[in-house]
Write a structure and sequence with these properties.
single chain; alpha/beta; Spore Coat Polysaccharide Biosynthesis Protein SpsA, Chain A; 2 domains; binds uridine 5'-triphosphate
């Protein structure tokens, strides 16, 4: 049973400056819902009961978001805003959420290391706090199912177009079934020629406690950061690490263009204004094409 999840959310968000100078990128809203709320919801929908958020300087808004706000609740209740009241009240009860601060921003691997006393000897899920995945079955649940079968660390991967592999962390290995690969290679941003596959790491993982030993033995790489993929590569030398090809569409809101695309797609899905928004987009495109 996997009941614990870790959500790294301490990063500096340099790709999204200046918006992220004084606010966490994980709180950037997709319409009205902060990105990290989708991530917490995915964990909860996958049966996770206990969440550790790796926080840091300037990330207080995340803690406030998942806490009670009695003054706001009273105002909503008194003004007969029942639906909003329940929605806001529910945020504090979604899961058992804990926080730990990453003292220096030394990379995803370093952030995960902070979870070792919290997760102990249990395998745990990792969900990047700046990545939303829209899927029929929550992706963390898909990974938990793969873990139940293989009993080792599992990395979510998605197929990306072959000519775009150089933007991603790519895995290579031996196919065990249509959806599972036994990983023997992790390559960060390979050239098309170097890439062992078109399977990109998708920001969700199940990790066994052995990852902490691997992280301890992983030296700081690029930008003095400890890379989780380097530690996973080390782990593959000692034990199986699987890649699970997930069903779902990933949105990395940490880069501006993806953020914009996510907002448009989610806007088109919102029943209350989807038709109006669709008409607006058509009109904008028509005007744009006329001007060209
Ligand atoms: P990213 O590499 O996308 O985040 O990490 P970043 O470093 O904030 O991004 P840029 O490149 O500067 O724009 C993915 C997730 O891991 C967290 C981030 O907060 C993000 O949710 N992270 C990253 C940490 O918690 N600690 C780190 O040291 C690095």
């Amino acid at each position: 049973m996997i009941t614990k999840a870790v959500i790294p959310a301490a990063g500096l968000g340099t790709r999204f400056l200046p918006a992220t100078k004084a606010q966490p990128k994980e709180m950037l809203p997709i319409i009205d819902t902060p990105t990290i709320q989708y991530v917490v919801q995915e964990a909860v929908d996958s049966g996770i009961e206990d969440i550790l958020i790796i926080s840091g300087k300037g990330k207080r808004a995340i803690e406030d978001h998942f806490d009670r706000n009695p003054e706001l609740e009273a105002r909503l209740e008194n003004n007969d805003k029942d639906a909003l009241f329940h929605e806001i009240r529910h945020l504090a009860d979604m899961a058992n959420i804990h926080y730990i601060r990453q003292k220096e921003i030394l990379g995803l691997g370093d952030a995960i290391m902070y979870a070792r006393f919290h997760t102990g000897n249990e395998p745990f899920a990792v969900l990047l706090g700046d990545t939303i995945i829209d899927s029929a079955i929550p992706v963390t649940q898909q990974l938990i199912d793969a873990y139940a079968q293989y009993r080792c660390s599992v990395v979510a991967v998605e197929e990306v177009p072959k000519d775009k592999v150089s933007r991603y962390g790519i895995v290579g290995g031996k196919k065990l079934s249509d959806l599972i690969l036994n990983i023997s290679q992790f390559i960060e941003k390979p050239s098309i020629e170097e890439a062992p596959s078109n399977l990109a790491i998708a920001g969700r993982y199940i990790l066994t406690p052995d990852i902490f030993v691997a992280l301890k033995n992983t030296s700081q790489g690029k930008n003095n950061e400890v890379q989780l993929t380097d530690a996973l590569m080390l782990l593959t030398k000692r034990q199986d690490v699987m890649a699970a090809i997930i069903e779902g569409k990933r949105y990395d809101i940490g880069n501006k263009l993806d953020y914009l695309k996510t907002t448009v797609e989610y806007g088109l899905k919102r029943k209350e204004f989807s038709a109006d928004f669709y008409d607006f987009l058509k009109e904008v495109i028509r005007e744009y094409e006329n001007k060209r």
